[in-house]
Design brief:
Structural class of chain A: alpha/beta
Largest interface: A-B, 19 and 19 residues
Shape of chain A: globular
Radius of gyration of chain A: 20 Å
Low-confidence stretches of chain A: none
Largest sheet of chain A: 11 strands, mixed
Oligomer: homodimer
CATH class of chain A: Alpha Beta
Strand order of the largest sheet of chain A: 1-3-2-4-6-5-10-11-9-7-8
Number of strands of chain A: 11
Strand content of chain A: 5-15%
Number of domains of chain A: 1
Number of helices of chain A: 14
CATH superfamily of chain A: Amidase signature (AS) domain
């Protein structure tokens, strides 16, 4: 029998609902795994085992009393440590925020509690969700980076510390760590999940995303998180259908994929290029190579112009007030974007809709774009979290992205990325589930 | 009996609906007035009398056939010449666009046609809706400016060429001309009226507004124009209540007004300051002077930073390609904002919500803000359209503004401006109607 901590969230929630498993048993299994592995993996910034167990026992009491239970009742979730929690510190991966506590939950954490989830603890992030690494290691090879910035969330889910975790992506911070750690992740459409109570790095780019060990689980947790929030300017009105129900449907026809090299292609080592080319070849008629017209060729620099300018806007006060508490890495990045002009910034913002129109047209002919999830597998060393070059372009466009752990390069996992149309996570996840099963045959 | 061209739109529409007036009679009366006055006022950029009459006769035929009629059935409207019309040129006040025709109506023009309105013609705008004047004169004194940029729309409505007109405001282009010309105008909340098909000068600021000769008429036409447009990024979802029905209600209690000098106060000549102070004094207990905390004191420069940067983004290609077809005035303005940094621009954008939070708090205690509509009455001379200094701040905040022609300074009309909460045009117009009646006693 599968140890409880290795269950998917969908399986665990079903067993808890059926009375075959208690939340306390599940959380104890997760804590035991963490105890065994944390000295090596170092996924956690804050974890209070007693507090987690108290939440689990409270959930079990609700269950025993026959009260209504949410979709994630009793299921533990790891929370990236830039996302506020009322009952735990939120330190944003920076000594500037050591011991910082707030008296509120972020909207996404509140939504998880509403669904009955156990907030297990806070996972390691890079410095201010930017590029300077935290302590976490890749569970597949401790000498390699887990990726970042959502390092602990990805490593923890990959190492079965918990079935689900939250991350955030401004460049490549959700999809890249999932690719490096060999798990599933969804970076949804900009605005699908509220950012209220999440460290603000870039209002145009910051996106809350989710980690899991199955496509179904991505739908399960995203259903709980997708709610309109008038306090978040990019949140948009939607009719909240069930992603889980949609992704479980059979596609009306076998999906068609547009393989895009993207302007990041030359950054991928030959082994990674070969791996995805083999996967594409295996899909035969269902996958065709496509390209997008300009200004798609400039998309990497367009993303950088937006991210740089907004990073400096939100982090500039740290640079001014306490530069000694920033990494040299981040200081240099911020100093380097001082001269971005309003014209460059506005032009970069406005090019999004031009490219999205071309992307929408392409996605009228295909079910999803298929591309690499990262430039390669996790690089050796912990001094860098690897290149986000296959991710920033999609974050910039605000489109939903899924990564599936279906490639192996140099003995390490690597993801294949599917990209869909804004606002259509249902179709994207349904397509991803189809592909995931196809590739597991 | 009032000549038909002097009727308000509400009166005219009612008479047409009752069969007491035909649209052709109304349009003929307007055309006769235009023929008599246009050599002096010069409100029109394009007017084809036969085409206007053909529209009127078609409207009358619909009426005779007993078919359903819209709220503006048979009523002529003047359209600022930066708003596209499928059946007339749109020259944007610039030799660059001389003779330009498009094959589509702007969304706001299509909405007017849907309501049965007659698109009478295109009214004079300043160069590219910026500051360099067109040919129009102030009907109250031909040696004075009518204001701008919606010069012809304001002068034409003031001079009874038509009961209604459309304008646009990026700085002070709707409210200021109404103040100078002695008529009513509404600059609604950013996003209430679609900008699709309107010359784009600043996506953050551009707002379509309306001119009329009564508060009721402002509600009547805005009801026809308020529709969600997914193609306009600032358009927002709303439940479309009737502004006309709301403004006709009696306020539940006599409204309370917060008089704000605003940071523009020192730009108003003493006679203008005295005139509004007298009006405020006359309101007694119902009006109190208030102030807003920083960064409100910097709001004029914040607006300029946003407008300057976006103007250059959208008009920069004209400067690069055909500088000789721009006025020296506009060339200098555009050259002067090249060095605005992304940091200045983002900071200026983000300060909006800080000020709006203070404004919302103030508007929790008052029904409306009361302030000057312009720095004074229309200045003498046609080489400038006057200062938009009392308007840009509200355009920047995206809040709705109404001007009422209830002041006289140096023998010329001047407006009193009411400012309301974003999205609440109904309460603002109801309050404006109350004040307008109070001041006419």
């Amino acid at each position: 029998m599968t140890p409880a901590n290795e269950l998917t969230a969908t399986e665990a929630a079903a067993r808890i609902r059926a009375g075959e498993l208690t939340s306390e048993q599940l959380v104890r299994a997760c804590l035991a795994r963490i105890e065994a592995r944390e000295p090596e993996v170092q996924a956690w910034q804050y974890l209070d085992a007693e507090h987690a167990l108290a939440q689990a026992r409270a959930a079990d009491a609700v269950q025993r009393d026959g009260k209504g239970t949410g979709a994630l009742h009793g299921v533990p979730v790891g929370i990236k440590d830039i996302i506020d929690t009322a009952d735990m510190p939120t330190e944003n991966g920076s000594p500037m925020f050591r011991g910082r506590r707030t008296n509120h939950d972020a909207a996404c954490v509140a939504a998880l509690r509403d669904a009955g989830a156990i907030i297990l603890g806070k996972t390691v992030t890079t410095e201010l969700a930017n590029t300077f690494p935290g302590k976490t290691r890749n569970p597949h090879n401790l000498a390699h980076t887990p990726g970042g910035s959502s390092s602990g969330s990805a490593a923890g889910v990959a190492d079965c510390h918990m079935p689900l975790a939250l991350g955030t992506q401004t460049g490549g911070s959700v999809i890249r760590p999932a690719s490096f750690c060999g798990i599933y992740a969804l970076k949804p459409t900009l605005g699908l999940i509220s950012r209220t109570g999440v460290l603000l790095q870039s209002h145009t780019l910051d996106t809350v995303g989710v980690y899991a060990r199955s496509v179904e689980d991505l739908g399960l947790i995203t259903d709980c998180l997708s709610a309109r929030d008038p306090a978040d300017a990019v949140s948009y009105p939607r009719s909240r259908g069930s992603l889980l129900a949609t992704l479980r449907e059979e596609p009306p026809a076998a999906p068609r994929f547009a393989f895009l090299q993207t302007p990041a292609w030359s950054h991928a080592p030959e082994a990674a290029q070969r791996a995805i080319r083999e996967l594409v070849a295996g899909l035969g008629e269902r996958c065709r190579e496509e390209a997008l017209p300009p200004p798609f060729d400039r998309i990497i620099e367009l993303h950088r112009a937006v991210m740089g300018a907004e990073d400096l806007h939100y982090y500039g006060r740290f640079l001014a007030d306490t530069p000694q508490l920033l990494s040299a890495n981040l200081r240099d990045r911020l100093e380097g974007v001082r001269d971005v002009t309003a014209q460059q910034y506005i032009a970069a913002l406005n090019a999004r809709e031009v490219i999205n129109a071309d992307l929408d047209a392409l996605l009228g002919r295909y079910d999803a774009i298929l591309c690499l999830s990262s430039a390669g597998p996790a690089p050796a060393g912990l001094e860098s979290t690897g290149a986000p070059i296959f991710n920033g372009l999609w974050t910039y466009l605000g489109v939903p992205c899924v990564t599936l752990p279906r490639l192996t390069v140099d003995g390490l996992p690597m993801g294949v990325q599917l990209v869909g149309m804004r606002g259509d996570e249902g179709r994207l996840l349904r397509t991803a589930r189809w592909l995931d099963r196809e590739l597991s045959r």
